[in-house]
Amino acid sequence: MINKDILRFKKGIKDGGRLSQSPRDKRKKSVRRGCLLFISLSFITLIIIFYQLEKRLRAYNACSITERDANGIATTLVDYFSLPSHTSLGPTPIIIGPGPTTRNGINFTGLSGKNIGIISGDINEIKISVSDSSGRCLMSYQEQTKSWSSVEGRGVFSITMN
Predict the structure, then answer these.
(1) How far apart are CA 98 and CA 145, in angstroms?
(2) What is the mean pLDDT of residues 25-41?
(3) Can you list the positions of beta strands (E) in the chain?
């Protein structure tokens, strides 16, 4: 092994001072390049996978935020009608926006983001509809849940209280 290195060194001096690489050194270099390429591609693939997962989670989160807004309105109405003196919803439709509002004597907390809620009906049947203003709620999720519908490409979550 040492003799081969000495011979290669002497040959390199004769070739103008450059040492030529042995086939073994070339293989090592190509293996290193291959490993580096594999690691780089793996890292990029992981970044893409995490990005897609985060995007999907945000979409499901948009659906649950809209559903939570509708359930919050329902809870407010249940609290309001729990008092014996409250027997009427008042004029409908009641439109609720992002900020806290008082409509027909009922105090509503604001909805998330730019979601809009509409309350319609009367004391016998109240319909609550909240539109997903973000547009990120997946159609596949909306189609699997009977309370979701689509209006002008936006998802609308509805609850009917009897």
Answers:
(1) 24
(2) 75
(3) 94-96, 101-103, 106-108, 116-122, 125-131, 148-151, 154-161
